[in-house]
Structure formats: structure tokens, C-alpha cells
Amino acid sequence: MQSPLNASAANLADMASRAGVSTVAAAWPSEGIAHLGVMVTACERCDATEACRDWLARAPSSIASVPPFCRNAGPLNAARKSRS
Fold it and tell me: What's the pLDDT band for 72 if we cut at 50, 70, 90?
């Protein structure tokens, strides 16, 4: 079983990947790296880690937008749009 921190990081990476957004800091513009840190913190504080993992287990490998239950839906959807 993963620790809560590792589960949160895995969920964020998986959700971002499905949205076409990289979680590698080098892929973000310098002003965006702080946003990446805020997203990690949001996932760490989320109480829906298991529900998120369940959703990710059933979701397609590519999604048009991050679902609204995700605390990082806004930043991930914005990052996806800025890269389009």
C-alpha cells in the first residue's frame, strides 16, 4: 500500500498525464513552477485520494478536461489549454 503522500503524487501525475499536462518541473515555464507546487499541496490535502484512484482506474487514457471533483481541475485544465 502506498503512503498518502505517494498516492497523492501518483494521482496528480496520472490525472495530469491524462489531461496532456506534464508534472515535470522542467516542462513548466519558470512562473508556472509555483503553480505545480500548489497543485501537489492540494493533492496532499485532498480527502478523496481513494475515490480519485478509483476514478482514474476507470477513466480513459486521455481526457478532454479534468473532472470537477479534482481540486486541481482549474489549474490542470488551464495548463492544458495554454499548451494547445
Answer: very high
Q: How many helices (H) and strands (E) does the chain have?
A: 4, 0
Sign of the Cα pseudo-torsion (42, 21, 26, 28, in order): negative
Give yes or no for a contact between 19 and 67, defined as CB atoms under 8 angstroms apart. no
Q: Cα–Cα distance between 14 and 11 in angstroms, integer?
A: 5
The answer, yes or no, to whether residue 39 has pLDDT greater than 80, is yes
CA angle 32, 41, 34 (to 5 degrees): 15
pLDDT in tens, 11-34: 999 999 999 988 877 666 666 667
